[in-house]
Amino acid sequence: MTRREQIDLHLDSFRKLEDNWDGCHAPAISELVIETTRDYIRFLSNFFGFPEHIVPNFNGGINLYWADESFEVSVGQYGTSIDVDWSDEEFAVNWIQAQKGLQAILEVPGA
Predict the structure, then answer these.
(1) 86/75 Cα distance (integer angstroms)
(2) Which residues make Cβ contacts (< 8 Å) with residue 55, sequence separation at least 6?
(3) Is 94 helix (H, G, I), strand (E, B) or coil?
(4) How far apart are CA 76 and CA 29, in angstroms?
(5) Residue 109 pLDDT > 60, yes or no?
(6) Beta strands of the chain (E only): which ranges?
(7) Which residue would you say has higher pLDDT here, 109 or 80?
(8) Three-class DSSP category at 57
(9) Which of 9, 82, 85, 99 is within CB 3.0–4.6 Å of 74 for a Cys-Cys bond?
(10) What's the CA gap between 40 and 51, in Å, rounded?
């Protein structure tokens, strides 16, 4: 079984968590959070590899931790919107700007 398949199974297991799964009133993890997390992992794994740890959090979200990187990503749902937080906001901003710059270079005709 590949690491991606293992992660998919692990994320699917979060569907079984019901309200109060931690005994401290944590909400169940929504389908939207699970699928958004899956999408983020697929995208970020192209640059950073797969996260070392994927854990549910007490807010009904999912935290992703990379062993060899200096950041973590938390995906949560607040009302009808998804919120994605990076532990190192400066890293996230710089990385996103670099990706936009790379995209702009790739879109230049004849480059």
Answers:
(1) 9
(2) 62, 63, 65
(3) helix
(4) 9
(5) no
(6) 53-56, 62-65, 72-78, 81-86
(7) 80
(8) coil
(9) 85
(10) 11
Burial status of residue 86 (CB atoms within 10 A of its CB: 0-12, 13-18, 19 or more): middle
Residue pair 73/39 in contact by the 8 Å Cβ criterion: no
Report the SS3 class of residue 87: coil
Determine the Cα–Cα distance for residues 60 and 27; give it in Å rounded to an integer.
5
Structure-derived torsion over alpha carbons of residues 48, 84, 34, 76, reported in degrees to the nearest 10: 140
* Token pair belonging to 50: 């797969």
* pLDDT (tens digit per residue) in 77-88: 876 677 777 777
Residue ranges of the domains in the chain?
A: 3-106
